Amino acid sequence: MKCCKRVISSKSQNILILFMLILICPAAWAAEDSADISTESAGPTSRIVGGKEAEKGAWPWMAAIVDADSTSNYDGQFCGAELIHPQWAITAAHCVDGELPQNIAVALGLHNLETDTGERVGVKRIIVHPDYNDRTDDVDIALLELDRSVEYETLSLYTGTDSLSGKTAVTIGWGSTDPVFKSYPEELRQVSVPVVSNTTCNAAFNAYASYYDDPITDNMMCAGFEEGGKDACQGDSGGPLIVAEDGQWQLAGVVSWGEGCAEPGIYGVYTRVSRFADFVAQYVPPAGDLNGNGYVGLEDVIGILRIVAEIRPRTTSATNCGDFDSDGDLTLADGIGILKLLTMP
Ligand code: ARG
Q1: Which numeric CATH code is attached to 168-275?
Q2: Cα 148 to Cα 290: distance, rounded to the nearest angstrom
Q3: Among 75, 124, 178, 230, whose Cα sits 20 to 30 Å from the Cα of 301?
Q4: Closest C-alpha to ligand 1, atom 11
């Protein structure tokens, strides 16, 4: 098993697998457009700041971090997080630094924090990156090990070397919709923002206030519009900045900090996830290796099938449906899953 995870990926094989995928995931294919980023309304009534309500179920890996002692997810939510493995979530270090695992929980399957039940999962371990600097917000990244596996689609990380400048990205959260009079929505919201280069971002912050001297490190990235109006805000921290790469959404940034929200002339700052692939890999098993034993075996295949069976009726936009190991590629490992699915009674 160990030898074969990433082997065969000849073109014809991929085409065959793709054909099977269309057979098993027609809804996912049709729904691909619904997660599209162009349908945002602007104007004073739209929120995250300047965004729109997410489509229910569109971001199945989106989690809320809540106070364990709060029975209300709405009252208890204080940050976002992303499920990157059935038993691991990624968030901002500043969200969980100094917290005890037993005092927080990860809530999944939520759109409306007030009315949806979703499910709450305990946290077994909080891993704040050892280089996190709470003064400069450098290396603002942390991992949460859940106390059990959950069955939701996971988000894969953007691990490319591109700076992503100029790319449109989407940030998502339950954070404030109003930069001044903090107002927290019940529903999950999203907004599209272009990534700007670190050079542009540093120049903008340096010009904004004299206490800034190139605050944007290589471990950070920025996104937003020069004219302001669209941004993440308080309560969105730990949430995602996703980009569409190779036909799937990938996690490029984690909501980290800003000056106010959506102000003109400056940008929202995110942790640059591609810098932390090694940190993540140190703790989080490869996507298909659900039981973390170091290889993708039969037990994992069964687990994957269980997840797919769970997800399919619930998801409106399984854009990476069939890419079971979330490596961005349809390989033999995915094919085994598809074949098993197709031969189920
Ligand atoms: N630090 C904030 C939080 O804890 C998020 C700030 C993001 N701000 C921004 N303007 N993009 O929720």
Answers
A1: 2.40.10.10
A2: 11
A3: 124
A4: 268
Q: Give mean pLDDT, residues 287-306.
A: 75
Question: What number is the average pLDDT over the span 305-323?
Answer: 61
Grade residue 131 by pLDDT with cuts at 50, 70 and 90: very high
Does residue 197 have an active-site annotation?
no
Please report the atom of ligand 1 found closest to the CA of residue 232.
11
Instruction: Choose the residue to mutate in 65, 233, 271 for probing ligand 1, maximizing ligand atoms within 8 Å of C-beta.
Output: 233
pTM: 0.78
Of residues 137, 140, 236, 300, which has the active-site annotation? 140
**Which position among 85, 94, 111, 129 bears the catalytic label?**
94
Give how far the C-alpha of residue 62 lies from the chain's centroid of Cα atoms, to the nearest Å: 6
Domain 287-343 has CATH 1.10.10: no
Per CATH, 168-275 and 287-343 having the same topology is answered no
Q: How many whole angstroms separate alpha carbon 107 and alpha carbon 118? A: 7
The per-residue pLDDT for range 77-98, each reduced to its tens digit, is 999 999 999 999 999 999 999 9
Cβ atoms of 113 and 64 closer than 8 Å: yes
Ligand 1 binding pocket, CB closer than 6 Å: 175, 231-237, 255, 257-258, 261, 268
> In Å, what is the CA distance from 97 to each residue of 140, 169, 229?
10, 27, 30
As a whole number of angstroms, the distance between CA 185 and CA 299 comes to 40
Q: What's the distance, CA 83 to chain centroid?
A: 7
